[in-house]
Amino acid sequence: MSRPIRGDEYVVNTMFAFSQYLNDFAYFSDIVRASTTDMFIIYGQPVLDIGMIFRPFLTGYLFLNQGQGLSFFWIGRLVFLFLVSFELGMLLTNKNKTFSCAYAFLITFAPVVQWWFAINGLVEQLIFGQLGVLLINWYMTIDDYKKRILIAIGLMISIGTFILVFYPSWQIPFAYVFVLLAAWIFLKNRSQFTYSKKDVLIIGIVLIIFSLIMAHVLSYSLETIKIILNTSYPGSEVFNGGGDVNIFSYYIPTLFYPLKQDGLLFGSNVCNFSVFIDLFPLPLVLSAIVLLYQKTKDKLLIGLLALYFILLIFYFIHLPDFIVDLTLRGHIKNSRLPPVITFVGILILIRAISNLKQNKHAKLFIIGSIALSLIMIAWTFVEFSQYYLSWMPIIAFILLGITFSVSFLSSSEKYQKMFLICIICLTFLGGALVNPVDSGTDVIFGSEHFKHVEEIVEKDPNGIWIINEDGHKINNMLIAAGARTINSVNTYPDLEKWQKIDPNNQSYETYNRYAHIMVNIVDNNDTVTNFTLIKPDLFQLNLKIDDLEKLNVSYIESAHNLDKHSNNNVHFTKLYEYKEHKIFKVDYV
To answer: Among 52, 23, 169, which residue's Cα sits nearest to residue 33?
Structure first.
């Protein structure tokens, strides 16, 4: 079944994409927000533009119908992420296919990846960050210049796609990770890398093409970026330390989030608590065995450990302002760091486990694994006791105990296969069960209500709509029918519009943000038009009837009867009613 917490996917991102079919895939849309809206740079949507070279998985929308385009977007990214992760795993493990496959499952079906699968560009960052590292490796180990040209183009697309995700809270820390991996690849291959003037020509031409396309995108979207950077949320927020020490155990309850989403602390949600299943403290223990006990000199493992502790410092410690500015730490939302920290934990885990040598203390490691499992379950139970059902800690203890045990013994091929089976079980439970399997788009385009909206829009395509409901979850549904909707999600604020009803900028801080918007129509005598901030990304507009004309509202969808609110200046005519949905035409006297 669809999950309400996934509203940003099926209510926002998908509806935005569907609305582009009625906008001829233009760069700017008058459907979203009922005003000129950049559809490319924020919540990147399909547009007919050269910039789409950096949005490859959205291209399906351009030549397929809505359902097929959505399917291409979802399935293409899932398959590509698994394949790219497997190939990077082959690099990390010196071509151990079993461990590489385990790594691919740990990344592709990580709880955080599946809970955030279609928004904020997490999947794109993982795909093209890892692909960029692979392409650098291939460029340095292949002498065929025809292939080098293709690789250089692929690297250009990878870097451009990563940059245009435009979500700094994940882009910045993930950039640290992929730059480290790229540096390792360069140092690893530099002695055998041969180059000539042809390489300078290839790289020069690709850089010129890259710069021209980016300049083109900036020429269209620079003003949008400026507006976003100056918003109250998320633009002006600065973050600096203060993290929760319990992040090391977050991966354990994520195993059960697909089955139970309520009961988390502070009213938070499963998306914000989701991470990669890094099996802490296994990455650190195995690294200690490899580096200290086996005395294996592994520069990548040392580098990954250094980065791991740097990210922990970012997360926990309040740093001086100059370091925050220099490292861009201030742009990284605290709740977005745990996924990156646990991603690095997986890299450490896979690199360390692939370097393990045969040991003679199997019983000792099994006993130690059981003890570690008990410690981790006890730790996580402290914070998540009100979330857990009675059977959950037992299942978690069994799964962790077995996985920890086979990890320590995985120098043998038999235990490597057992490790892979354990990883598949963990990721199936915590990740693969997250997303429902749906077919078709009839739930939207086949509904009677949607068809009535389409009929109205066909007769009056320039009409401006407002959704007046008790919640905000359906505010984007009508844009897929072409209805120009003021309170569809405002990915960035339309300050000129809001200042028409707030001429003195009294509520500037409230509406100057990325926002879901609830509109409540009120009688003129009840109150003045005002804005109320409910959450950082949600505000309510209490809108006086006479102020509807200032926003040029033509139609209102409402769960309430607005007829009784008609007055000498504004008249409401009911056009349609179906179940809880009513549509009113607004006329001004």
So the answer is: 23
**Using CB atoms within 10 A of its CB, is residue 310 exposed (0-12), middle (13-18) or buried (19+)?**
middle
Type of residue at 460: D
* 3-state SS class at 575: strand
At residue 572, φ and ψ (nearest 5 deg) are -105, 130
Q: Are 532 and 485 in contact (CB under 8 A)?
A: no
Q: How many CB atoms lie within 10 A of CB 384?
A: 21
pLDDT in tens, 221-249: 999 999 998 998 887 777 888 888 889 99
The whole-angstrom separation of Cα 414 and Cα 419 is: 9
pTM of the model: 0.94
Beta bridge partners of 530: 542
Q: Contact, 326 vs 163, CB < 8 A?
A: no
pLDDT in tens, 96-151: 999 999 999 999 999 999 999 988 889 999 999 999 999 999 999 999 999 999 99
Per-residue pLDDT reduced to its tens digit, 319-351: 999 999 999 999 999 989 999 999 999 999 999
DSSP class per residue in 513-567: BSBEEEEEEE-TTT---EEEEEETTEEEEEEEGGGGGGGT--EEEESS--GGG--
Q: Measured between alpha carbons, how far is residue 66 from residues 41, 46, 50, 482 in Å?
A: 21, 11, 21, 14
If you ran DSSP here, which 8-state letter would residue 256 be given? Answer: G
SS3 362: helix
CA 269/CA 299 separation, integer angstroms: 38
pLDDT in tens, 472-494: 667 788 899 999 999 999 999 99
Distance from chain centroid for Cα 572: 41
* Closest listed residue to residue 353, CA positions, set 94, 135, 580: 94
